[in-house]
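Exercise: predict the fold of this chain.
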Amino acid sequence: MKKINFSSKTNNLKGNRSFVQKAMVSVLSLVTLIHVESKAQLADSKRNVIQNQQITQLATIRDVFKGGYAPTVWKESYISGWSLDSAYEKAEKSLLECDSYCSPKQYQKILKDFFAYMKDYHVGIIFNSSERASLPFTAKKFGDKYYIVYVDTSLLSNSAYPINVGDELVLFNGENPEEEVKKIVSEITSGKALTDHSLSELRLTRRSAALGMEVPKGSATIQIRKDDSTLRSYQLSWNYVEDPLREESFHASSASGKPLTLLEQIEKKAQMLWTPYLAEPEQSSTAGAPINPYGVGSPVSYVPFLGKKITQVDSKFFFNYIFDLPQADKNSRKIIGFIRIPHYSGGAEQVAEFKKIIQFFEDRTDGLIIDQINNPGGSVFYLYALASLLSNNQALTTPLHQVKVSSELAHDAANALDELKDITSEGDVKKVMGENPQLGGYPVNLQTITFIKKYYKTIIDTWKTSQKIRENGETPLTEPIPLYIDQINPNAEVSYSKPILLLINELDFSGGDFFPAIMQDNKRATLLGMNTAGAGGFINSVDVPNNTFGVSKYSFTGSLAKRTTLDGQPPLENLGIRPDVEYSPTEEDISSQTFPKGAYINYQMKIINQIERLINSTNGDSFSNP
């Protein structure tokens, strides 16, 4: 019998088992590798999908600008090295440099920087976020120092926190407030240095993620200097509102609304709305909060009372009064009217009230001071309606616009013209538009419709004759044309005829640029203050519904407005309106020991002296030397 070698068989089994084990390990390793690679591929796929979506959205925005942004040629000549393509390439490069894909905050910052590159106060982007924070005071720079100019006493007890208007703000979170303001300036830079700085001063104590800003939490420490030079420090809590959605999640927006009527469509296309950097409403305060006179669009401004009030007209919309002009000779008494125009967003009700006030002033005053300090703009038709009441019975010429004619604008013009084609009489106007039709309080009659038709026809003709330009990927600009109305006819019933002094500053935007341009170009008013912001054209706004990346809307300038009365027909864009008499409140104004805090004694005297010169000028010339 053959002897079985059990040792050898055992060795063979061991060898086979070892082989199987190794094979299984190899298979498991391969499966693990495939799993890891699959996860990596999924991650790469997710990265590529999100990254591609971000680049696609950026490219879409660029294409919208190519088709609809009017100031492109002006920007290329005015700003050295400015290029829309360069701005896009820089943003695209930043997107590709993100690890994996850009987070919401990273992506939104890239978009915000792209919009800021345009140096245009009508260009901006709003994000879907309710995160914001505020402190109950406002500070402003005068000279080299910052002073408290507003305190929300509904949120800050003066007995516990004796922080008052006129106190110097020495430190903000341990630093000179200027350092914090500079950080904000770097976030919102859009054009003019003085305007950027003034906007950033407002945002020092009011932050919003909807504007792409970093929003602080917790507390802030401030140090103030009182009248007696004593220093006091306080810790204040940021009034913080959290976004209910996760900070690092992409989330969507939605857009809805009923269709606009033809008149509403026309007025929407003539908006000279405020800069997106002011789009978020003033954060409030409670119902009992005092009005912030430094707020943009505030019903009252920081312009001081200019004399002893005699009377006023009861008004829901316009702060106004009549006062005695101080005179050395009591026999030469002069009576002055004062009215504030906080913004140019209004309609028939506001115009009717303005008309009542101007009639009252026409009958009783020797001159008028109009305060449009910190005016954010609004509707061009509402602006025209107010100007018609101040025209001294003369037609007022308006700036002309070079309109960027996109395919959308051309088709909108064709549709509007089709709706208007059967209006050939005053009876047709009422039949189609209804009784007493108005655009922002400006009367719509057959003449108005005729001018509107002419505007739309120019848009259509420009599109039809620009095929060669469009083939090169560009869209055309019209020749300089009126924005619907080339001359503002005087109101048929009321027209102020006395000298006018108009107060302006660096936080006047859009319509706040156009109104002083019209008044100055027609020699209807003298302008006192600082150069306006220079938001020179009408604004287009694009809603972004159901967007993954938290973009709510963005805006851009659809026309380039030009002043036809000045040599070279300079645009309003970037340049703004230069005052006839330059003045900005000084440190002495805010810290005067002679008058109560905030009395602005030098500013007050500058205004009074100038209106007196206007009234006393023998020929009524509103451009008397200061």
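Check your answer against the key: Residues 30-36, 38-43, 619-626 have pLDDT under 50 and may be disordered.
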